[in-house]
Write a structure and sequence with these properties.
The complex is a heterodimer. Chain A is of the alpha/beta class. Helices cover 25% and strands 28% of the residues of chain A. The chains are: A alpha/beta, B mainly beta. Chains A and B meet through helix 7 and helix 8 of A and loops of B.
């Protein structure tokens, strides 16, 4: 093989983080070769609609291409779809591919994402249980959601609840089983989770919390999900959304540090100065939260980190410091969270026309905000709270609790005082 | 040809904020910027079907409430991923405390 003048940047993973990084490199006028490798065959697409619009749209859904159908075209980005990377040779700076010769790189970005955690339960097989990660998964689920069928959703997290809401809209009879004492576990405050559960139940979804599963049994038609209390939930289809596992195998085999994800520094660089990681697969220290190491499974984080890591690969020294922000749509309402509510030691509630809007404070400093309701009552204030968190502000709790005081004024007074 | 439509009262919009206005099957976002400058754009984000009136106005930028796509309000220009298609803008005039937008 001829030695190459510039092997350029190779990106493993064509999801949000990897694709945004590729597009950002060109926006930043990086002129070297960019190779974007994805295991799927579509153009890179947005995953958030998979549990929502892709399930409920009347027409057969198409993937929502990141940046539009022409985003990669004309950018001189070598997109290789349906390609599996088998290994990283850090000494030679090459990738092993399942098909074809080794691929050299000058810099490498690991944007390998995460895969669904699978059920380890008697009877839980690839045939009996659906999972949702890819567009192909979404089509498989959509194909099952016929009007009147019984769907059992295992796991009351974001994906499970979004799928439940979508299936209900399609006319399915839906039961959600959550093994933990309540739905939406760690990341969502109990008050908000309770409101979401009430909303789902009012819409007609059965939610079973705090009950373990013992097995999935085949039936003449469909299967039955057996619960620890002896109940059997008859199902025409079963889907599990019980968390995700970061795709770290390539990094681990290459000797890179793993710490609940590929360990990176504030710039999203690994211990190998030629290798970076971004998105769901990486664990990074967050400067706004005292360097706490986070691994986030969220669309906007993937997008922001993809953009940030592109800069790091071009030599930027800035730390990634964007405050986490997350949303989930359920039955037309939206759940939004800024920051890290679980960091807080005190919660202040603002009553916005009957909807509780929660502020989470740690030693007086705002570290999180959360709300569930119509997007018009949630989104603006969550965004403002995010800016207050980013600014490291310690707003007066009385002002936070007072719905007549605009959050924007708190932000402006802080800016004025600075 | 100009086709002025009475959208709302000046005082119905706070400074540095936005409201929704629907007319004849179309939806608009009507803004009040600093120094009482009023603007109007098409109502829905060009990235996904979300109304911009639920978004946050910062200076002359409107941010989509769901995905943080950003647009320059006076020009409608898309300013950041994931939004890449510009908003349509409409001329605005103020008469007797009312905000009119030109759909012509």
């Amino acid at each position: 093989m001829q030695p190459q003048a510039d092997a350029g940047i190779v990106i493993i993973g064509a999801g949000e983080a990897g694709t945004r990084a590729a597009l950002t490199l060109r926006e930043r006028h990086y002129a070297g070769p960019i190779t974007l490798i994805g295991t799927e065959t579509h153009l890179p697409y947005e995953r958030p609609p998979l549990s929502k619009a892709a399930q409920t749209a009347l027409d057969h859904p198409a993937p929502a291409i990141i940046g539009g159908a022409d985003a990669l075209a004309g950018q001189d980005i070598d997109y290789r779809s349906g390609v599996t990377v088998t290994g990283i040779d850090r000494a030679a700076k090459t990738l092993g591919l399942q098909d074809g010769p080794p691929l050299p790189y000058a810099q490498l970005l690991l944007a390998t994402g995460a895969r669904p955690r699978t059920l380890s339960l008697p009877g839980a097989t690839a045939e009996s249980v659906l999972y949702l990660r890819t567009f192909g998964d979404a089509l498989a689920l959509r194909g099952q959601l016929a009007h009147g069928i019984r769907l059992v959703v295992i796991g009351g997290g974001f994906i499970g609840l979004e799928v439940a809401a979508s299936a209900l809209a399609r006319g399915c009879t839906v039961t959600v089983v959550e093994m933990a004492p309540r739905i939406l576990g760690r990341a969502v405050p109990a008050e908000i989770a309770a409101r979401v559960a009430t909303h789902h139940r009012a819409a007609g979804i059965t939610i079973i919390e705090g009950i373990g599963l013992t097995a999935i049994e085949p039936r003449a038609q469909g299967s039955a999900v057996l619960l620890a209390d002896g109940r059997a939930l008859e199902a025409d289809a079963v889907i599990a959304g019980i968390g995700a596992i970061p795709e770290t195998a390539l990094a681990e085999a290459a000797g890179l540090a793993i710490e609940n994800g590929i360990r990176v520094d504030g710039r999203l660089a690994t211990d190998d100065p030629a290798i970076f990681a971004a998105g769901d697969c990486c664990a990074f220290p967050h400067p706004v939260f005292g360097g706490r190491r986070l691994r986030l499974e969220a669309w906007r984080n993937a997008q922001d980190q993809g953009r940030h890591v592109a800069g790091s690969m071009l030599g930027d020294m800035a730390e990634f410091a964007t405050v986490p922000w997350f949303w989930s749509d359920q039955h037309g309402d939206t759940l939004q969270i800024a920051g890290l509510p679980d960091e807080g030691d005190r919660t202040v509630v603002r009553d916005i026309a009957g909807m509780p809007f929660l502020f989470h404070l740690k030693a007086g400093r705002l570290v999180g905000a959360s709300a569930f309701g119509p997007i018009g009552k949630v989104a603006k204030d969550i965004r403002l709270a995010e800016m207050l968190i980013q600014a490291g502000s310690s707003p007066d709790p009385a002002a936070l609790a007072d719905p007549t005081i605009k959050l924007k004024s708190l932000l402006q007074s802080r800016v004025a005082a600075a | 040809m100009a086709q002025w439509v009475n959208a709302c009262g000046e005082d119905e919009i706070d400074e540095e904020d936005v409201i929704r206005f629907d007319h004849a099957g179309q939806s608009f976002a009507v803004y009040r910027l600093e120094d009482d400058k009023f603007c109007a754009t098409s109502g829905f984000c060009t990235h996904e079907n979300v109304h911009l009136a639920d978004g946050l106005v910062m200076g002359r930028i409107i941010e989509c409430p769901k995905h943080n796509g950003r647009f320059d309000i006076p020009t409608g220009k898309a300013k950041g991923a994931p939004a890449c298609i510009d908003l349509q803008t409409f001329p605005v005039k103020i008469e007797d405390g009312r905000v009119f937008i030109d759909l012509g």
